[in-house]
Amino acid sequence: MKFRHSFLIAVSVTAIFAYCYASDQETKPLTEQSATNPLSERKEGVAVKHTGAVPGGGGGDLAMGKQLYAQVCFACHGEHGEGKEELNTPSIGGLPAWYIIEQLEKFKAGMRGMHPEDVPGVTMRAITLGLDEQVVKSVAEYVTTLPERFTEAPDVEKFDLEKARYRYANECMECHRYNGRGEIAFHSASLITLNRSYLLRQLKNYREGWRGADSSDMYGNKMVEQARRMSDDDIEMFVDYLGALAAGDDPRPARER
Ligand code: HEC
Ligand code: HEC
Fold it and tell me: Which of 61, 108, 188, 252 could form a disulfide with 138 if both were Cys (CB 3.0 to 4.6 A apart)?
């Protein structure tokens, strides 16, 4: 047994596992839901691979990461990192390793998951407390190899694509890039593989200052600044647009493509 903290982890999450399995009865996993989405087929062609997704970001142990995933993360994030709506867990498969490491460290350091009403954040923070640096790197290295599950496409009937594309290009693209895959240089997240309910919740968390508002969270602060300006309708529109981006929309002006 390679993990120094595996016993501690096993004990600390047993209670939460019980909760996971208990509430896991009725809802279908996200992978099954997305298989019925007609747009999901097209998404294969979108893949411009993210920058900075060098597996592991260096120093991880993939075998250890795989084992830890199966022991700890699997129950909440799903076998393939696809996320579970009923547990409020994001689809983390394929996220860049550097970003996973950064977020796990933020949870651990108390920059994220500290607000008592942010129950999903508090839950995830509890998990990170038992993970040391080597384990974090190793599990990130494994999660980045899991398949991506693209953000749900919006209902085109109810969605003003032109307007949303314009707003994304002006307000988000500078940091999250034209393809919504983020940029290691800006520490900005890759957005188009995250599930819709998670994205909606995160933008609200930033707006409330439940995430990103800590004075030592320089990059989180940037998102708080963005989200403070957003109405509920804006948040819906941006998340709808991330679904369109995942389905292949391109927000760049024609001359820049
Ligand atoms: C008890 C359930 C549970 C377990 C076990 C769990 N997570 Fe989570 N995780 C969550 C929840 C809930 C969230 C959403 C937090 C939020 O809304 O801020 C989350 C969020 C995350 C995020 C943030 C994603 C992003 O885009 O910022 C990462 C990364 C993550 N988990 C990785 C892991 C890894 C790796 C493991 C295994 C070591 C793990 N989780 C184990 C419940 C869990
Ligand atoms: C000035 C740069 C900047 C701009 C502009 C910006 N973001 Fe971000 N965004 C970031 C950074 C940096 C992060 C990671 C912050 C953290 O660690 O919490 C982030 C994180 C996010 C997340 C959380 C993703 C996750 O994995 O949990 C969402 C959602 C998001 N941004 C959406 C948007 C949207 C929508 C816009 C446009 C309205 C936008 N951002 C504009 C820099 C930016």
Answer: 61
CA–CA separation, 182 and 100 (whole Å): 13
Q: Is 251 within a domain?
A: yes
Report the pLDDT averaged over residues 138-148.
97
**Is 60 domain-assigned?**
yes
Q: For residue range 187-216, what is the model confidence (pLDDT) as tens digits?
A: 999 999 999 999 999 999 999 999 999 999
Could you tell me the distance, in angstroms and rounded to a whole number, from the CA of residue 89 to the centre of ligand 1? 6
Tally of structural domains, the chain: 1
Could you list the residue range(s) of the whole structural domain that residue 103 is in?
6-256
Q: Is 61 among the domain residues?
A: yes
CA 146 to ligand 1 centroid distance, Å: 15
Q: Which atom of ligand 2 is nearest to the CA of 242?
A: 35
Ligand 1 binding pocket includes 77 (Cβ within 6 Å): yes
1 lies in some domain: no
Name the pLDDT band for 57 (thresholds 50, 70, 90): low
Identify residue 141 by its one-letter amino acid code: E
What is the CATH number for 155? 1.10.760.10
Q: How far is the CA of 124 from the centre of ligand 1 (A)?
A: 5
69-116: pLDDT as tens digits: 999 999 999 999 999 999 999 999 999 999 999 999 999 999 999 999
Instruction: Locate the ligand 2 atom nearest the alpha carbon of residue 187 and give its number.
Output: 12
- What's the whole-model pTM score? 0.86
